[in-house]
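Contributing new records

If you add data, match the layout below exactly. Sequence lines come first and carry their own label; structure lines follow with theirs. Keep one chain per record. Anything else will be rejected by the validation script.
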Amino acid sequence: MDITISFRHVDHDEKIREYVEEKISKLQKYVETPLDVHVVLSIERKYRHRVDVMLTMNGVVINAHEVMDDMHAAIDKILDKLERRLIRFRGKVKKYREGKQKPSFDAAEATGPSIIVTKKIVAKPMDPEEAAMQLEASGDNFMVFRERENDEICIIYKRRDGNFSLIETSGKTA
């Protein structure tokens, strides 16, 4: 935690500096990332004690200010404000992280891939050129058909380069 304390229209007081550092360092327990804190202590019109705090963590900035008759009371009051804001911020981050879908790992996935969808296809008899035309018209990635000449099961699929590839099986099915 990096704490910077500035005094404006106030004499530099080591006791107040230590008091601010002690109180502000308690805020670190609300966040995991290191905080960058800038505190400005000032007096306005000789009786208004003002405390401005700017917290920065991972690009998120939280500002707060408090004006009271006593500097110690203003520091305590602003500490309460910052605690509430950090708790609220932590809740928002937690809610965001819980809202994201986490990949689920089942026992079946851990052992290897499994069959998710089963589809029964009727292999119609046709020529490879006719299968390529039908595949192009259907918009599918592949087509299973039975070749007319030798009655073998064939698979035609569209390659990434736009051409077609043909897989011919050997042996006849009943």
